[in-house]
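Reviewer 2 asked us to include a model.

Predict the structure of this chain.
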Amino acid sequence: SVGVSGASDQVVTVMGEHFARSAELVCRFGLNETVRAMYESSSQVTCLAPPRGAGTVSVAVSNNGGADAFTGQLLYQYSSAGSGWTLTPSKGPLTGGTAVTFRGSSDLVYPGQSLVCVFGTSARGGQVNHQGDVVCISPAVSMVGAVSVTVQTTESREVMGLVSLEFEYYAATRVIGVFPSAGSPAGGSVVSVRGEFFEADGLQCRFGIETVSGEGVMMLSSSLVACIAPAQLTDNRVVAVEISINDGSDFTSDGRQYAFEPEATVTALRPSQGLGGDEGSLVTVLGENFEPSATLSCRFGLNEITGAQYMSSTMLSCRAPARTAGTVAVSVSNNGEDFSISTMRFTYTMSQTAWVIAPSLGPAKGGTLVTVTGVDASEVSLDEVLVCVFGEERSPARHGESGEYMCTTPVTDVASSVSVTLARSNSGLSLGGEREFEYVTTPSVAEVWPVRGSIAGGTMVSVTGSGFREAGLRCRFGGEEV
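Predicted model (structure tokens):
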């Protein structure tokens, strides 16, 4: 009983009695606009309402073209074109399940009314909510593309004022991965989301229950989206990152995770200086909230980033890149993207001291006697006490007769490489850069074969065990080394 003003081809179903199947069967709208009617049954005909302006007119039926008076008149309302309907969202995945809201003139429907939504050729029941909007769930389809949509009455299938509305089905969006997969609880991290079938129109990201839209999300390609992570607002430290391309009506459900982690802080560097021009000097960084991630890294200055080796939540090591003499700030990142606000300074010196250590590896149980040679005597007074610093542990240096210094390696819990510096005991300042000492697992002999041989020697003996390595390899038979 309601149509849209100015629209053509709006089908109106008229119900009554004594309708005749004749070529003169007609409907009349208002006083003088007569249109042909289509016979459906003796109690039902359909006709196309002629275009008119907004207003209400009477509708009547005649079996003989109006020769006899029209009787049983009903009222038909032309609502203004401005009260035509819109649908939100206007697209959804071909898997269906999108809650589509049809919004238009409230005088066309009433709350609680049951209607039928027709998507192409598929009909689904709809309901009118308390705001006068019609809500329907989109059906699943087999192909992407646009379909026409109408809302009809349940009983007569009368179209409810919808003119040329379309709903677009798209291929189901999918999230494959996120990088970085962790960031600060304060938010602000730029997160790259990889996936399939992304579109710029209606693009949103969701971190747990927090939605990011507008300037906080950018489509880079159909398979890559950049999202700015929101601040952590709930107790959930780990959340799923999902994507929507229809303004948040439908999100993916792939469950790729993003973790809010406390920001790393830097409190000290050991050593805090190195030789300018040296490549790969090992620096131990002390701080808090370090994470054992593949993206753990150090940054020297503004843009020189190196990978870091996790040692504990308060200690890591990284190699300083080669630079000319000067001082730079060192910061740490758990995700390779967001670096700590707190920094410590690392100084590249111009010292020409070129001392070396031998051996450069030994067992983690400590006790290896390391000899330091090549120290510039002009840099050390005769009565000055020096120490060798292995990572964080200090070991007294004994001065030899030939100008060398000898230190004993301390015990360590983990077999790994540590930096070695030769420093003044009273001030802690190092003498020209650093070297590296590698702690290795203590070799263990399990078996030898054969267990006997000629006293003349020359027997090839196989030794099995663990912790063997090619560099510096020796065998000892009693007091004899080979």
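The chain has a mean pLDDT of 85. The two ends are 107 Å apart (CA to CA). We have added this to the supplementary material.
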